[in-house]
Amino acid sequence: MIRTSFNDGWQVRSKVNPFAELSGQVVPFRPVTLPHDAMIEQRRAAPDDGVTMEGAAGAYFPGGVFEYRKTFSVPEEYRGRRIFIEFEGVYRDATVYINGDHAGQRPYGYSHFRVDADRFLRFGEDNEIRVEARAHRDSRWYTGAGIYRDTWLLVGEVVRIAPDGVRVRTLDVDGSRAVVEVATHVANDSIEVRTVDVVTEIWDGSGAVVASDISKLTLLPGEPATARQRLYAHSPALWSPESPTLYECHVALRDVDEEKVTFGIRSLRLDPERGLRLNGETVKLRGACVHHDNGILGAATYPRAEERRVELLKEAGFNAIRSSHHPMSKAMLDACDRLGMLVVDEAFDVWTSGKSEFDYSLSFPEWWERDIEAMVAKDFNHPSVIMYSIGNEIPETGSPFGAVWGRRLAEKVRSLDPTRYVTNAVNGMLAVMSELGALRKQALEQAGDGAGINTLMADAGDAMNAVSSSELVTERTAESFAVLDVAGMNYAEARYALDRDLFPNRIILGTETFPTRIDGNWQLVGQYGHVIGDFTWTGWDYLGEVGIGRPQYFAPDEPQRAHNAPYPYLVAGCGDIDITGHRRPASYYREIVFGLRAEPYIAVRRPERQGKTWAGSPWAWSDTVSSWTWPGFEGEPITVEVYSDADEVELIAEGGSFGRRPVGAEHRFRTEFEIVYLPGELVAVAYRGGVETGRTSLRSATGPVRLTAEADRQVLGATGGDLAYVVLTLTDAQGICHTGADRPVSIEVSGAGELIGFGSADPSTEERFDTTERRTYEGRALAVLRPTAAGKINLTATARECDPVDVVVTAEQHPQAPTPSRSPDPIPPTS
């Protein structure tokens, strides 16, 4: 089918009652270009101000119902063809109308779906499509709202390759050849018997045809059929995170239709001794959980935004992403294929038991099969996808009926795709929530005076592990784990060693773990063959679930620590990377634990909180910044943390050496020095066996503050969802970030582009992302530009007491795809 973008020409408004409009209350539409997040543009407010809010889960944004419409023409020559409109994601409860008639719907906000449009169209005339989407207290995180992913117009003949109809898998591979199966699903909506030639070619990255085949396929009237071909590629280049080699499969129904898909050749193996093997080599998953929002862009899913996240996560040392807790976007899957990132794609956060007032559990019993089918159809050709997760922290997993549901989902996935593994991210404590009272009573009796259990329950991580490793959880979750290929465990590392003996055939994946425990968790991953990886919560910070990772301190008037932070908190605060893409100290610590960084790393605790007693959650990293610029605290005590895998580290400042401290694995890869702050240079030197192995330093910013602006790329595509990211930084003359000089920055954009997001990583702010002025946070802000045409895009930024700065990027049309060079044994012509 011919696939063209359907993103332009839309309008949006908040939906109003049509009867109210008759009385004069008219809400105008305004133009938008998709993808679009209608929620990010709403005004946040405290929950008690009279506005219906999503609360802390939704970052205090209001929910609502949003209406999109578009007028488009359909030429007369399209009459008699099949026409579909495809939506990659509409959040949520999407309802589609064409020329006023109901054309389709989709309750789940993360599934791609198509509307069969041709029956509703007026050919040779203008047509109107209208899409309604609603989001209201239906999730535990910021979801966004509206048509937040790409849309497409698909046009084809009555005999055609069905959408998502080409599925490629590697049946067998060794060093000399790969056996590749191509299954092509062909539709026949005609009333005739049709026989077509199915011509299939596999191209390598240079455009050379490395394998080909042709076969005939006869289609009965109104019946689809599948052509299944085996092709043999010699000396295949295997896909892996280190070498993400891709091939293209081109399938043509000669003189009728054609389709191409990208795929990779690789093998997967799994056993409890050698764990997960990719192409015969054991791989441990250095995993990041990620939500679907793109920070200052909200939920809008631009291909470049997804690609940038994958790039930065990989640079930070991750080799795997768990899409939490939703099916991953097509754009991010494409980026994972190209860049070499393994994927655990997750279907649902709820099944039949709801977690929010109006969540997907209300639709799950009727729609789950179609949503599983959509996820697998989307993922099938992506070599990055190694595993499907059928759920996250599903309360039903602790009951027999929940195990029945788990078996249904797992078997459905296997029936659609037997090439990948199935997991489920089980939280043992939630699985036995109804029994926690009895479990606590039992623990109190065992602890005597109760001091032991009270101390235990004061820490969420210890509490979850204690419950998850109990006999109760062992018994209640046994069947739910048994239906899986991989037992996904959230916050349950206490089971890793336990289950090696209790369930010797069980393979475990830490599907969600505390970032503060990566050192111990990673030691367990390396120690046990049946534990194949660790996924931290989270690799990238996200909107909503506000403040779970924020710094907290004990205070006399706050004896209880709140799980969420009050308005105007905006983000969760637990990501290794903040919402602008800047790496936080936890990210560098993790890189050291993974064994990927030799140099030590310096993180400095905020001196204004010196002496306070830490009370952060297990999701909260220490309240540190990698900066030696603290104006106003000269001569005051300050704590310096140093991370390293060496034997010891030495800290050197303007006053000389502060001695050496042991560090490395036995000391959790970290140590700290309490010194007096004096501006200048701070140096950490790492030693192993008395020999220096690396050093790093921080310098204080001095002198006048300058504003700098740097784009991530100078040239970008004018179409296809490309973006330019411009980092604005306050520095001194030497380019050192001035973290203590935050101020408002204003920007102006002209030329062939527009500003679509401007913000900082400030975790608690009332500033918006759709304005042209934002205050920096820790010396930084980020602007995102979208091309509107080919040409130059100009950005000018100004700030108080700083010279203006300019950035120019160029948007160009994408180059043409390569032309294939024919194989020595070409496909024979039609006889």
Automatic annotation (TrEMBL):
Residues 707-806 form the Glycoside hydrolase family domain. Residues 166-266 form the Glycoside hydrolase family 2 immunoglobulin-like beta-sandwich domain. It holds the Pfam family Glyco_hydro_2. One of its GO terms (molecular function) is hydrolase activity. Keywords: Glycosidase, Hydrolase. Residues 66-135 form the Beta-mannosidase-like galactose-binding domain. Residues 276-427 form the Glycoside hydrolase family 2 catalytic domain. Residues 810-831 are annotated as: Disordered. Residues 635-693 form the DUF4982 domain. Coiled coil: none annotated. Residues 817-831 have a biased composition (Pro residues). The keyword Membrane does not apply. Belongs to the glycosyl hydrolase 2 family. This is Glycoside hydrolase family 2 TIM barrel-domain containing protein. It comes from Actinomadura vinacea. The lineage of its organism: Bacteria, Bacillati, Actinomycetota, Actinomycetes, Streptosporangiales.
